């Protein structure tokens, strides 16, 4: 049975063209699906279990989508709610949904799909040999797992289908693969499985697969042999090139995409322009495999305090590296002498902004900048220790001289206090898959009617 | 000639926290042919200080794209990371002579 999926944008919180959304709703989709996150902005969101996008932006856009859903009379699904898809961010999205239902006078049936994993479930899976490392994977043992602040499993189509089967008007899903919310309904209705996953990958970033990426809204028609994709904004075109090029995006292998229960192979896919706006794709293949779900986990790897000084004196700009090296050695002694800490107890990194701030040791160019920003980053076991080190090094970062026989220089601190406590420093701690006998074994669904 | 001056665009992106992927959009078949002839995968590996055998290279004629994926030179968000989204690594490749 043909299935029409409306994708309003690549992620909730980045905006979309509202005229294009209205065109999409008028096209009578069978479902509206949008992604709510990814790991792309780093481990903080997952580690802390918070959304990277503002609540105000999220609520404003969700309001439009809840209105679109009511108008279309079809389910609305969000995957990876609140950037990281932890239970806490699913609940955050659920609270926003309840507020909006009341404000819009809607009564809606909401299914929450939870993807967070209790640490001991992962430890048991490790013991039972059901955890497999991907390449490269951080080392994992029971202690490392116990240390993680949040672990999520990436749900696939089966879990979204289970949430839809509750009769939900709105599905708020925790961590899912980027494609699962789009592929779920076409797969449930018997459309071509290769096309379902391939079309989902093409549409998962919204209009990024078109000539006008910021317009957001994409419509995909799935059927028994393939899929057809069209951008909803007047000034956005899907061409065979714009569509096929999207397989490159944030994907290490442009022909294969691993999902729970198998992988997509697009080696044989053919992309054909139906007209100036629409592209037809056939020939993609779904290859069934073991039922595994990918895991993501984050842990606290310390606490940080930063300091930023700007060198403008030409002699110091020219000798910036030598200066930070000497300063670093001097500060090691000060920190040992005054705080009794050895270099193993903390890390103090200086980055030279204007020299190699972005690329570090891989930088192979050099030049003569007007000024250099020296960013000092302290990482220690507690915030108090990091802050204390920051305060201790502060006067030296301000005044340290290159030579002993010169008047003390004074560099530029852009603000007061010169140090900034950054709080917990999180790092990704898992790159593994977990084998499941039953797709729902690591997920749970709650259903409630909310609103006016 | 620098690679970046020859082709349409060089883009680097995270492919998850542990991988980096670099796409060289050559623009047309002629420039694609020049790039695949001139671009030595071993030299790219040296740019990223990564063993040659860790690089996956895809020469995609239909798109006139050369795609190179490798384990991220530093894991995203680790203490050593300097570029959370991994976009600056593209410039290393843009600046090589072809």
> Helix count of chain B, per DSSP?
4
Largest sheet strand order of chain A: 12-13-9-8-1-2-3-7-4-20
The overall average pLDDT of chain B, rounded, is 97
Using the alpha-carbon principal axes, give the shape of chain A: elongated
Helix and strand content put the structural class of chain A at alpha+beta
Question: What is the strand tally of chain A?
Answer: 20
> What radius of gyration of chain B results from the CA coordinates?
13 Å
- The total count of helices of chain A amounts to 13
Give the mean pLDDT of chain A: 97
The shape of chain B, in one word, is elongated
Number of strands of chain B: 4
Order of helices and strands of chain B: HEEHHEEH
Portion in helices of chain A:
25-40%
Model description:
The complex is a heterodimer of chains A (452) and B (98). The mean pLDDT of chain A is 97. Chain A is built from 13 helices and 20 strands. With 452 residues, chain A is α+β, with helices and mostly antiparallel strands. Chain A has two domains: 3-115 and 154-291 and 436-451, no CATH class; 300-428, 2-Layer Sandwich (Alpha-Beta Plaits), CATH 3.30.70. Chain A is 31% helix and 29% strand. In chain A, the strands form three sheets. Chain A has a ten-stranded mixed beta sheet with strand order 12-13-9-8-1-2-3-7-4-20, sandwiched between helices. In chain A, strands 5, 6, 15, 16, 17, 18 and 19 form a seven-stranded antiparallel beta sheet that branches. Chain A has a three-stranded antiparallel beta sheet with strand order 10-11-14. Chain B has 98 residues and is of the alpha+beta class. Chain B has one domain. Chain B is built from four helices and four strands, in the order H-E-E-H-H-E-E-H. Chain B has helices at residues 3-6, 29-38, 41-47, 89-94, and strands spanning 9-14, 19-25, 56-60, 65-71. Chain B has a four-stranded antiparallel beta sheet. In chain B, a hairpin with a 4-residue loop joins strand 3 and strand 4 (65-71). The model of chain B has no long low-confidence stretch (mean pLDDT 97). The A-B interface holds A 39-44, 134-138, 241, 244-245, 248-255, 301-302, 347, 349, 351, 357-362, 364-365, 377, 379, 425-428, 431 and B 13-19, 21, 23, 25, 47-49, 56, 58, 60, 62-63, 65, 67, 69, 71, 73, 75-80, 82-85, 88-89, 91-92, 95.
């Amino acid at each position: 049975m043909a299935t029409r999926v409306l994708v309003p944008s690549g992620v909730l919180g980045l905006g979309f063209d509202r005229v294009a959304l209205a065109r999409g709703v008028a096209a009578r989709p069978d479902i509206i699906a949008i992604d709510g996150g990814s790991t792309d902005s780093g481990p903080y969101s997952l580690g802390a279990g918070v959304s990277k996008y503002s609540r105000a932006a999220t609520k404003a856009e969700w309001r439009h989508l809840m209105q679109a859903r009511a108008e279309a009379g079809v389910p609305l699904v969000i995957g990876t709610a609140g950037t990281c898809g932890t239970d806490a961010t699913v609940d955050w999205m659920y609270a926003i949904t309840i507020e909006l239902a009341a404000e819009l006078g809607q009564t809606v049936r909401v299914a929450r799909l939870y993807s967070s994993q209790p640490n001991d479930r992962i430890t048991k899976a490790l013991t039972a040999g059901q955890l497999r490392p991907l390449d490269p994977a951080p080392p994992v043992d029971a202690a490392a797992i116990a240390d993680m602040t949040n672990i999520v499993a990436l749900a696939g189509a089966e879990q979204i289908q289970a949430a839809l089967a509750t009769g939900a008007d709105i599905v708020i899903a925790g961590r899912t693969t980027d494609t699962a919310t789009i592929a779920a309904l076409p797969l449930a209705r018997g459309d071509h499985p290769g096309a379902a996953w391939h079309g989902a990958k093409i549409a998962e970033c919204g209009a990024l697969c078109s000539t006008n990426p910021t317009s957001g809204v994409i419509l995909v028609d799935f059927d028994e042999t393939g899929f057809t994709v069209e951008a909803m904004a007047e000034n956005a075109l899907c061409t065979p090139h714009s569509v096929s090029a999207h397989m490159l995006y944030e994907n290490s292998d442009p022909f294969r995409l691993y999902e729970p229960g198998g992988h997509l192979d697009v080696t044989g896919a053919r992309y054909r322009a139906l007209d100036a706006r629409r592209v037809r794709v056939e020939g993609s293949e779904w290859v069934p495999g073991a039922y595994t779900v990918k895991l993501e986990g984050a842990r606290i790897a310390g606490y940080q305090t930063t300091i930023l000084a700007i060198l403008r004196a030409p002699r110091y700009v020219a000798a910036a590296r030598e200066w930070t090296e000497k300063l670093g050695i001097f500060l090691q002694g000060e920190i040992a002498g005054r705080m009794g800490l050895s270099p193993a107890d903390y890390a103090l990194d200086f980055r030279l902004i204007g020299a190699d701030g972005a690329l570090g040791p891989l930088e192979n160019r050099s030049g003569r900048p007007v000024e250099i920003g020296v960013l000092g980053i302290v990482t220690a076991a507690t915030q108090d220790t990091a802050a204390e080190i920051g305060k201790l090094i502060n006067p030296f970062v301000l005044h340290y001289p290159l030579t002993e026989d010169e008047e003390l220089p004074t560099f530029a601190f852009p603000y007061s206090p010169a140090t900034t406590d950054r709080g917990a420093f999180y790092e990704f701690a898992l790159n593994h898959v977990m084998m499941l006998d039953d797709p729902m074994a690591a997920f749970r669904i709650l259903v409630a009617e909310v609103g006016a | 000639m620098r690679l970046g001056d020859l082709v349409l665009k060089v883009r680097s992106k995270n492919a998850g926290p542990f991988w980096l992927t670099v796409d060289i959009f050559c623009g047309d078949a002629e420039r694609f042919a020049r790039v695949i002839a001139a671009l030595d995968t071993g030299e790219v590996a040296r740019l990223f200080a990564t063993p040659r055998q860790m690089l996956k290279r895809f020469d995609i004629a239909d798109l006139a794209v050369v795609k190179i994926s490798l384990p991220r030179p530093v894991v995203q968000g680790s203490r050593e990371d300097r570029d959370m989204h991994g976009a600056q690594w593209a410039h290393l490749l843009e600046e090589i002579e072809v």
